[in-house]
Amino acid sequence: MSVPAPLDNYLVVDMSDGIAGPYCTKMLADGGAEVVTVEPPEGDSLRTWSASGSVSAGDGDGALFGYLGCSKKSLVADPDDAGDIEILNRLLARADAVVWSPESRLAGVPGLAPSALCDAHPHLVVTAITPFGLEGPWCDRAATEFTLQAWSGGIVGLGRGAPDRAPVHVGGRIGEWFAGAYAAAATLTSLLRGGSGELIDLSMLETEIQGLTYHSVTFQELRDRPFRAERSIFVPGVSQASDGMVALGCATAQQWNDLCIMVGHPEWIDNDQPLQITARAAEFAPQIYEWIAERTVDEVCEAATAFRIPNAAVGNGANLPELAQHEQRGSYVKNPTHGFTQPGHPYRMSSFSLHQPEPAPRLGEHSEAIFAKLDTTAPERDRPQNRHGAKPFAGMRVLDMTAFWAGPSCTHILATLGAEVIHVESSTRPDMTRFIAGVPMTDESWWEKSPIFAGLNTNKKGVTLNIQTEKGQELLRELVKTCDVLVENYTPRVLDQIGLDYESVKGLRPDIIMVRMPGFGLDGPWRDKAAFAYVIEDASGLTWLTGHPDQNPIEPYSIGDPNAGIHALNGLLIALAHRDRTGEGTLVEASMIEAALNVSAEQVIEYSAYGSFLNRDGNRGPVAAPQNLYQTAGIDEFGRDDCWVAIAVATDDQWSALREAIGSPEWALDPDLESSDGRRAAHDLIDEQLQQWCRERNDDEIVDTLWGAGVPVAKVMQPHRQTELDQLASRRFFAQVEHPVNGTARHTTLPIRFSSAPEQFEMRPAPLLGEHNTEILSGIGVATDDFEQLENDKVIGRKLAF
Q1: Which CATH architecture has domain 625-711?
Q2: pTM, to two decimals
Q3: Cβ neighbours, 10 Å, residue 564
Q4: Rounded to the nearest 10 degrees, how much is the dihedral formed by the CA atoms of 716, 721, 722, 723?
Q5: In the chain, what are the helix, strand and coil shares in percent, each to the nearest 5?
Q6: What pLDDT sits at residue 383?
Q7: CATH assignment of 397-598+754-792, given 3.40.50.10540, 2.40.50.140, 3.30.429.10, 3.40.390.10?
Q8: Does CATH number 3.40.50.10540 belong to domain 11-145+165-214+352-376?
Q9: What stretches pass through the bilayer (predicted)?
Q10: What values do phi and psi take at 177, rounded to 5?
Q11: Which residues does 363 contact at the CB level (< 8 Å), separation at least 6?
Q12: Which of 21, 174, 560, 735 has the fewest C-beta atoms lying within 10 Å of its C-beta?
């Protein structure tokens, strides 16, 4: 007997356009939901879209639409036809959820705005995806994904790029994909645990902050300095081998020391200053690059893997499906309509199968069938009881065996939304984000002073268990029995070696959902590779589209981790839907790499569908022309001539507005510039003229002039200045959190607002090392008299014990 798809009892109406909304509903369709895409008569804009310009009118639907539209139905509704709107409302009366974005022409119908949808259909979960959120002083301001990156601080936030060049954004419209994954998780949260009737307000600016910056405000306020203020090229980073590009990373002193030995120069190791990795690497960069250039990609990767140095071949649209790990695991599949190559699911389930992709619908293909169905009596729906005022995950206990950024970012959302999350560390091997603090080890309790650990672990409880000891493993097993969910992101061998693979965990708690987040998967030739965010970015194509075209690509150094976290959460929620219906637990294998392959899908799709090879293009992009960063007058807060604005003209009307705002100079009156194609052909000229105009003005003057005219524009912000943005203050995106050791600082909350929840998320400080040992371990039978002995044996502890 086949197991029903977990979401097959949900009807979702997609009233969005672009990438974020359709990616959200694709994830819901993969879980089995019935998704009806409502399109105007001319169709969704993606039907005629190709990043390389390979789709023309009459060519048929674009390949990206063919990917994002898999398994959906299409209903045509003319926004100007009252009869069509009435039919749409009848469909909404039967639906469970709506995904909405302002890009759709239907969004302009007054009765189809998010609040109006909630008023007309109180049972609906309405997820609105907008640049800044539905409310606040910026809610109606013009924006593109590119300008949102600038406002978020994500363009300069992690020191990406050469200091003698313009900063560079993360390519591939990554913010839209990431927002879509966040929207899917928010929608599922409300459907599964919120009850009927909810308005979910998602701000893409806030998702950009979560995905492209690294708790920069918290770091600034606790350490009184930015996390990273200067741009630099990370060495080795992306390098040219004899047969392609390869990436090596040194995130720790040990990895740098191992690299020195690997390339035959142990004398480069400086034990007196072990943390000066960046400076030492830059000093010896020519010799490192020479060593790499003399070897093939496979030879470099094999040597680096032997030394446990993070490494990967650098993937792009042409080579990604052929990389050994992706090929062996079947990470790519054929599109069911056109046969081009597209990513498979971003997670894998042990107890049931995700919905296999069916052909994307032709425009209006299902209109008649939907009309006929609406003429029948609607079946009675057993919708969950409304839980307004209650946190969605209250009552759920989560064992959090994660570290660094990817895993904790997943469990952080669960904790913020009410789950009891127990973060497991060891006093001998703590979560390494405790070391990202910039605090001397001579300071008392220095390991409690990391702003990064504080930001990722608010609302959690902390337990220390040394799982390298027999007693630690015994206590861990007892703790597993009390938990509904286990999330871990160790390398696969760690839990396997102590007998805590899924089958063993299932034996302890039969209905448990175990989410494993390995870097490259639980099998395959790269199974045991060290996986940091940048390595995942390299191996998935995210790096390839980032950087200037005349230089090697630059690793984003950010999105690989939180993107894995939000995809793992989606996998967990789909597994939760399965358990709600069947009582059965599940292993969710949510590898970091397959989450990244899904949000970099467009490169492989373009190449396999059209033979078009997408490449990095600095700060230009396929959506807007002109689109670039322009240097302005003024000195930045560090005393540098390094102030920039981002400008992106996405429509002809925006071009007219920009032209008038800058005084209609003669060069801008050229009729060829009236069209997007003409502006793209003249991009160099436009850049030169806009650069001259911007260089004579400061960033505030430029933003006031252009934004007031309706042109997407942004300051290129330092991320620690996010609190200066009026929109974030209005939405109470930051919460003051008082820590017993660190003091008080502002922490990010979540980039979503639930209408059933208070305006401000409750935020408790991250736990001290082993802070909740007594509370949690007493609950599994540890006697009061035993704690001292457990500490003496270093099974538990409240202080580091190396």
Answers
A1: 2-Layer Sandwich (3.30)
A2: 0.97
A3: 30
A4: -150
A5: 40, 15, 45
A6: 60
A7: 3.40.50.10540
A8: yes
A9: none
A10: -65, -45
A11: 39, 43, 47, 61, 74, 76
A12: 735
If you count DSSP H runs as helices and E runs as strands, how many of each does the chain have, helices first? 30, 24
Single out the residue of 571, 582, 536 nearest to residue 557, CA to CA: 536
What local confidence, expressed as pLDDT, does residue 278 receive?
77
| DSSP track, 176-206 | HHHHHHHHHHHHHHIIIII-S-EEEEEEHHH
- Beta bridge partners, 241, equal 244
Q: Residue 163 in contact with residue 667, Cβ under 8 Å? A: no
Bridge-based pairing state of the strands 311-313 and 752-754: unpaired
pLDDT digits (tens, 9 = 90+) for 631-679: 999 999 999 999 999 999 999 999 999 999 999 999 999 999 999 999 9
| DSSP element (H, E) containing 648 | strand 644-648
Q: What does the CA dihedral 344, 348, 349, 350 come to, rounded to 10 degrees?
A: 120
Which tens digit of pLDDT belongs to each residue from 481-505? 999 999 999 989 999 999 999 999 9
What type of residue is 92? L
Q: Are 619 and 169 in contact (CB under 8 A)?
A: yes
Q: What Cα–Cα distance (Å) separates residue 735 from each residue in 218, 237, 238, 602, 627?
A: 10, 35, 38, 36, 34
Amino acid letter at 240? Q
Lowest mean pLDDT among 374-378, 549-553, 619-623: 374-378
Q: What digits encode the pLDDT tens for the residues 68-104? A: 999 999 999 999 999 999 999 999 999 999 999 999 9
732 dihedral zone (left: phi>0; alpha: psi -120 to 50; beta): left
Rounded Cα distance between 553 and 551, Å, is 6
Tokens encoding 38: 């409502």
Fold for domain 237-326? formyl-coa transferase, domain 3 (3.30.1540)
Q: Quick: pLDDT tens for 585-602.
A: 999 999 999 999 999 999
Tokens standing for 85?
Answer: 């709107």
